[in-house]
Amino acid sequence: MVEHQTYALLNEKQRGQLAALGTIRKPQGSVSDVASMLRASKYYLRLQGGPLSGNGQVEAIMAGCLALGDPATYVQRSLFTPPTVTPDFDSAWKRLCFLESNPADYEKARAEQLAVAEWVCFRRPAWQLLQKVRQAR
Q1: To 5 degrees, how large is the angle CA 65–CA 70–CA 73?
Q2: Beta bridge mates, 69
Q3: 92-102, pLDDT tens digit by residue?
Q4: What tens digit of pLDDT does each residue of 7-50 get?
Q5: Which of 47, 74, 109, 132 has its CA 20 to 30 A from that of 58?
Q6: What's the pTM?
């Protein structure tokens, strides 16, 4: 899936390159529609546009996508691992081609990013909440 601001800024050649790897999806429709599109996607790409909080990135990672992109376009940058940092289209294209040719590296990067997302977005906040509850008792 290509994030909507990024998709709008890609030129026809870049869209064609991405299409060579499979169906290009961009988020649209209901929440259920977007969730279905994410589950059907292997990657989530965000390269350009204004700063985002990263909700789409979290949703994509939790749906099983490897989220690639430019950390500078996010307010929350902690979900990027070294293999997922692609600050421009050329670096993203090279990384996508590499990952498509190296399934073990893809799986390792996806599992690593998922573990980071689970910690940052779910486990750590739950642990911190429990600590506050214990302190309040």
Answers
A1: 105
A2: 46, 85
A3: 999 999 999 99
A4: 999 999 999 999 999 999 988 899 899 999 999 999 999 987 76
A5: 132
A6: 0.85
